[in-house]
Structures are given as structure tokens and as C-alpha cells.
Design goal:
Elements: H1 24-36, E1 40-46, E2 57-59, H2 69-82, E3 87-94, E4 99-107
Antiparallel strand pairs: 1-2, 1-3, 3-4
InterPro entries: RuBisCO_ssu (IPR024681), RuBisCO_ssu_dom (IPR000894), RuBisCO_ssu_sf (IPR036385)
Keywords: Calvin cycle, Carbon dioxide fixation
Subunit structure: Heterohexadecamer of 8 large and 8 small subunits.
Length: 110
């Protein structure tokens, strides 16, 4: 329980922000879960000072039908390399409900 962060200490952008940082293996499992749900991965990024707004920039189009965790990770890293100072998040778009099934910040900007 000591690993849970105080909600006032850092900005929060989604549910996982209240937990300790995810390691690479936990990140892979979250991406695999998103794909296994049939959701389409999409990548978004934004400057840290604008992170609390509703509108983040989309990195390319959502990866419709993508089944490879490694491909999603490669795109996340490419977005982070192209925008190193930005927050980068992964969104799982649910075709059936026409909504976001999941969204979490993968890389935090400075």
C-alpha cells in the first residue's frame, strides 16, 4: 500500500496515474489486453501544459485490426522519439460501443 502515490503530488491523467509506474512487462500485458478485447489501438500525444485538455493530437490513424503488441510498442516509441517532450498515451477504441474502451499514458513529457 505504501507504493500508491498521494493524489496531490503529481498530475493525474488516467486511472493508472495513481499507481506506481508500469514496467515494460506490465505495459505489454495492458496492450495485449486492449488487443484481446478487439479494441483498435490509437496513439495520441500532447504538450505537458495542455495535458488536462480534452484534445490531444493523434499520431497517425488508429491501428485498425492490429494484433501485434510489438507493432503497437514500435509506434508508441516512434511517437515518443518524434515528440520527446510530449505526453504519449495509448487509447483502445471500441468499434461496438463507439467509445474509448481504455486509455493510459505510456510516456510522460517534461
Amino acid at each position: 500500500m505504501a507504493d500508491i502515490q498521494d493524489y496531490n503530488s503529481t498530475p493525474k491523467y488516467e486511472t493508472f496515474s495513481y499507481l506506481p509506474a508500469m514496467g515494460p512487462e506490465k505495459m505489454r500485458r495492458q496492450i495485449a489486453y486492449l488487443i484481446n478485447q478487439g479494441w483498435n489501438p490509437g496513439i495520441e500525444h500532447v504538450e505537458p501544459e495542455r495535458a488536462s485538455t480534452y484534445y490531444w493530437y493523434m499520431w497517425k490513424l488508429p491501428m485498425f485490426g492490429e494484433q501485434s503488441v510489438d507493432t503497437v510498442i514500435m509506434e508508441l516509441e516512434a511517437c515518443h522519439r518524434a515528440h520527446p517532450g510530449h505526453h504519449v498515451r495509448l487509447v483502445g477504441y471500441d468499434n461496438y460501443s463507439q467509445s474509448q474502451g481504455s486509455a493510459f499514458v505510456v510516456f510522460r513529457g517534461r
